Amino acid sequence: YQMLLDGPGEPDSALLKKSLLAVMRNQPVLNSRWVMSASGLTGVPEQLDSVAVRQHTVRTADLDALVGELAGQPIRYDDFPLLGWDLIHHEQGTALLHRDHHIVHDGWSVGVFLRLLKDAYLSFEHGIDWSPPDSAMTYFDWARQQRERVTGPASDGARRFWRELLTGIPDGRPRLPWPVSAELSGTHSELRIQSLGAARSA
Prior knowledge:
Number of strands: 7
Largest sheet: 5 strands, mixed
Radius of gyration: 20 Å
Helix content: 25-40%
Number of helices: 6
Shape: globular
Distance between the termini: 12 Å
Order of helices and strands: EHHEEEHEEHHHE
Strand content: 15-25%
């Protein structure tokens, strides 16, 4: 997953890194190195000393080219961390390129990540200690639920639904049996968030 946050301001890079580390400390999927073992993918907690926010300075006219180059750098499932941050300074503002492996976030959870990051940054900016709220459910709890969904009794019905929906579709683009809205509520006059599509991952 790749995303570009672009705006006219100049964020404090030290606070940005402090906020990122504060969010990572409470999320096993982010603070672990993942290794394949006989029992499957296993997370091994890592020290966060090696996590960096790389900084670049370019002309605004060269911003897209640099973003394209950086976004093309792959992230493997056994890399640490499973995300990369590049803070890019240009004449018209600052862009933050966020890249992560597809096992880290989906379209919903990336919003949770950004909200936590914003809360942390604003708190630190005002001299307030911040730590993420405790959650009764961890990433590992969610992963166990997903495994149970695909191996339990309900999995037969789910597989049958998708098999029937996708059968006989020549271009692989089914018409979904529920309405899909493309409208987004809310705007932010000083921040442009651009999804860059699927990250290169292995």
